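Researcher: Here's a chain I'd like modeled. Treat it as a single chain, no partners, no ligands.
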Amino acid sequence: MSLLSPRFCASSLCGCTSPQIGLKDGGLSRRGLLAGGAALGAAAAAPRFIAEAVAQTPAHRIDVHHHVSAPTWLDAVKSMKKDNAPMANWSIQKTLDDMDKGGVATAITSPTTPQTFGLDAVQAARVARDCNEYAKKLETQYPGRFGTWATLPLPYIDESLKEIAYAFDTLKVDGVGLMTSYGDKWLGYAEFEPVWAELNRRKATIYIHPTAANCCVNLVKGVDEAYIEFGTDTTRSIFTLIFSGFGEKYSDINWIWSHGGGSLTAFYERFTVQALSRPPYAGKITRDQVEKQIRRYYYDTAAIPNDVTMSALVKMVPVSQIVFGSDFPYRFAPEYAKYLPTFFKGDDLKAVDRDNALRLLPRLKSA
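Model: Modeled as a single isolated chain. C-alpha cells:
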C-alpha cells in the first residue's frame, strides 16, 4: 500500500511525532527481551503492551514483506515527490516493536514503491547499492532478525546485472525485491530476459511488490492507486510472466507475489480458459501449463487478512505456497498474528507463519 492508513496514526506503535531513530540508536531487540535478567530489565523499560505482547506471542514468524527506508533512498524518493508519511516516519525502533508485538522472528526487508524507478541510470544504481548495503548493516547489527531482498536499478539492465553480482557474491543477500512493472514494461517483457536468465542461474528468489504503471497513475479521480491498481498490476505482471513463457523457461526462480497475488483469484477463469481459447495463445499454451505456474508461485498474506480473499487463495494454490507478509509500516504484524490462527490450524499455520519461507530461506533455520 502507498496510502496512509487511518490505523497507522491511530496505532500506539506509530509515534509519528517522535524523532526518527536511526541504526546507531540501537533498538529493542527480541533477543534482548528474551535473554534472562537482561530481558526483564528491557521489558520493564519498554511500554507495558510491548512486554506483554512479546510474552504472549513467541517470535517465530518470517515476514517476507517488510519495508525499511534507507536514508539515501528516502532522500531520492522525496526529490521525486513520491514519499508518504509511513515511509518518511519509519525507524528501526518502530520496525522492531512491530516485529516483537506480532511474533516476527525475522523480517526480510526491501524498500517499497517506487524503489529506484524515476531516477536516471547512474542515480538508480547508486541508490540501489546504498539500499542493499544499509539492509546488510541491519542484519549485522541485529543478528537473526533481518534478511535482505536486494534492490535492483531496473529498468536499466546492465546496471541491474552488476548489482546482482555484488548483492549475491559480496553481500550474500537472500534474494531480490522488484516491482510488478516499470513505467510501461511488465516483468514478462523481453527487455527483462537477461535479468531472469542470470537470476535463474543463481536459483534466486524474487519478491515482487506492486506499483502503479504509467497507464494507471491517477486513473480514477480521487482513488489512490493502492486501492485498485496495485492488485491489478500484480495480476498483469503474473499474466505476462506466464504467457511469455518466461515463468516456465526460468523454472529455477522462486517468485513471491505480494498481497495474495492481487486480483489473480478473481481473474483465474480468464487465465485458465478465456486466454487459451483465442489468438495469440490458443494452441500455444495449455491450461495445465498455466495452472502449474500459478500453483508453483508463492503468495504473501499482506493486506489479505480476511476470509473472502484467503478462501479464494487456498482454493487456487496449496497452503505450501502461502508465506507470511506484514507490509509494515503500512500494515502491522499483530493484525495477521490475530487473524491467521482463526483461518489456518496446526501444521498449516506453522507452514504459513514460518515453514514455507524456510524452504526459500534455509539459512534462517538456526536464526
